[in-house]
Amino acid sequence: MPQSLDPKDVERLLRRRPVARAPDSLWERIQAALTSPETPRALPPLKRPVPRWLMAAAVFLAVLTGTLGGLYWSYRAPSAWAVQPVAGTPTIAGAALTGGDKLGAGEWLVTDAFSKAALSVGRIGTAEVGPNSRVQLDRGGLTQHRLTLERGRLQVVISAPPRLFFVRTPSALATDLGCAYTLDVDSAGASRLHVTAGWVELKEGDAVSVVPAGLVAEVAVGERPGTPYPPELADDARTALRRLDAGAGSGADLDALLAALHQPSDFITLRRQSGVTLWHLLPRVPPELRARVYQRLAELSAPPAGVTREGILALWRPMLERWRRDLSPMWSEDAESWWTRAARRLWERTID
Amino acid sequence: MGTVLVAEPELDADILEGCRRGDPQAQRAVFERYRDRVFSIALHFLKGEHAAAQDVTQEVFVKVFRAAPTFRQDARLSTWLYRIVANACLDELRRRRRVLLFGDMPPAIHPVIPAAELKDPDADVTRAVSRLSPRLRIVVLLRYFDDLSYDEIAQALGTTPGTIASRLSRAHAILARDLVHLRPAGRSSQEGSHAAES
User: Fold this and answer.
1) Domain ranges of chain A
2) Pick among A6, A36, A47 to test the B interface (most B CBs inside 10 A)
3) What is the pTM assigned to this prediction?
């Protein structure tokens, strides 16, 4: 333990400081200075310390400016994206890539059956363009990174706050919510999204599907995004789900789907994946089938307090949302606290 | 604007009024009253540099006498004078920093301590005080050279008594650590603490 002097001893030592004698010659110097023609100066202003609130405000502003500057520097969308050939001879505007190329706004990156290319998504991630693909760089906001995938495949890994990376396809808009995913577009323009990490929002018009890691969602041109489902779902169940999504499903289709959704042996996986599927399905099935979807969902995860069977069957929005939050706290933006959500919205509106 | 000065306990009101009028004799009286204390503060603040301390002392009195006609009616001369002393010392330090930033180091900025002082306890205290940061050093000097109260120091430095108490406390802690070798013989630090508490 470090030793120190007693406080009283410190005072005693300080008080016995000898007062130094000022030289007598000082008086003459002062008199000489006073009689010099220099204009008398006013009292020196009181040197007040900078008020603490002002210092705190200055520090806050500096931190805020630095943070926003850092975020902007990290997430700003470049006007041209670096692109590297991975296999074969991808082209930009008909010219083969030679390495060190850039994809400018409005330009198309095209791959044939044997070629692939890697796009740098600003500083936030990468997108590998698969064979037989056509990808265009779109103009976005200051921080919005936007691509159009006309056909083919994109394998995306993004490490950034949600809603900075968007891919437009002929059938939907995929919005990154912090994730990794594969997006395929066939020759008819239909999209298939397979999320491998995080969440992706698939939107067309007012219809939205929020797809978590491990699930797949499909959407055809002119239709609403389909219900997310596990990729291992059997073909007949998948067909049944498509019919249910289209509003043309029957009791037999629902039977097939519910039976298939019971396949995972791990209950947690089952609840996590099937819960998302069943929740999306609730408003998409006809009323006479909705009770059975409710029943299966309630078996997987009991509805939270305040959520009633009648309310869900009537598709009362607050109850649907409450159950959704209870099913998966990480589901979409409701997972965020109010201040995080407010900050994110402010960020999105001010920057973009 | 009223021009009546508040009399110092030690100074006659006539002297202050004469000082306000520019009477050399009154000025001399004020100078004699405060010269050594102002010089001592400057000397210790500037780490023993006599020439610089004389310059600062001269500057202080010249400012006081030139601005005497503008004394506030409710101000005490000593409070005002110590404010000028503190500002002059800090200004001198700032001026030196600018010199260091833009030019050569002045030769006397690290005064050589005479060998005779090396084992002198008072010299140890002087050195320890000179190692304090300027903001702590000026508070210690005003407190122990001139016995100013916390309120008076706060007025001189344009801050609050609470800030002064905090700075003095920090200065004490630093000095207690740096001067531990001067502890009276036969007393441990724990004993000292108990004594202080009792």
Assistant:
1) 75-226, 234-352
2) A6
3) 0.52
What distance in Å separates the CA atoms of residue A110 and residue A126, rounded to the nearest whole number?
17
Q: State yes or no: pLDDT of B103 exceeds 50.
A: no
How far, in Å, CA of A194 to CA of A215, rounded? 6
d(CA B54, CA B49): 9
Query: Terminus-to-terminus CA distance in chain B, angstroms?
Result: 52
pLDDT score of B75: 64
Ramachandran assignment for B22, one of left (phi > 0), alpha (psi -120 to 50 degrees), beta (any other): left
Q: Can you tell me which residue has the tokens 């992706």?
A: A200
- Any idea what the Cα angle at residue A190 is, between residues A89 and A195, rounded to 5°? 80
What domains, with CATH codes, occur in chain B?
1-112 (1.10.1740.10), 113-198 (1.10.10.10)
Residue spans of alpha helices (H) in chain B: 13-21, 24-45, 50-67, 77-102, 121-131, 134-145, 150-157, 161-178, 189-197
Please determine, for residue A89, whether its predicted confidence score (pLDDT) is greater than 80.
yes
Closest-CA residue of B relative to A3 is: B189
pLDDT of residue B5: 37
Q: What's the rounded Cα separation, in Å, for the pair A238 and A244?
A: 10
Interface test with B, best of A17, A21, A25, A48 (most B CBs within 10 A): A17
Report yes or no: A128 and A158 within 8 Å, Cβ to Cβ: no
Would you tell me the crossing angle of helices A317-327 and A267-281 to the nearest 10 degrees? Answer: 160
- Is the CB of A50 inside 8 Å of chain B's CB atoms? no
Give the distance from residue B158's alpha carbon to the nearest chain A alpha carbon, in angstroms.
5
Contacts of A171 (CB under 8 A, 6+ apart): A185, A189, A190, A191, A204, A219, A220, A221, A222, A223
Residue where the block lists tokens 């089952």: A270
Overall average pLDDT of the B41-53 stretch: 84
Give the mean pLDDT of A144-158: 92
Tell me the Cα Rg of chain B: 19
For chain B, give the mean pLDDT: 75
Return the pLDDT at B189. Answer: 47
Asked if B39's CB is within 8 angstroms of A26's CB, the reply is yes
From the list B153, B147, B182, the residue with the least C-alpha distance to B167 is B153
Distance from C-alpha of B76 to C-alpha of B74, rounded to nearest angstrom = 7
- Assign domain A75-226 one CATH number from 3.90.79.10, 2.60.40.10, 3.40.50.670, 2.60.120.1440: 2.60.120.1440
Residues in chain A: 352
Q: Is B158 left (phi over 0), alpha (psi -120 to 50) or beta?
A: left
ipTM entry: 0.74
- Token code pair at residue B154: 């706060």
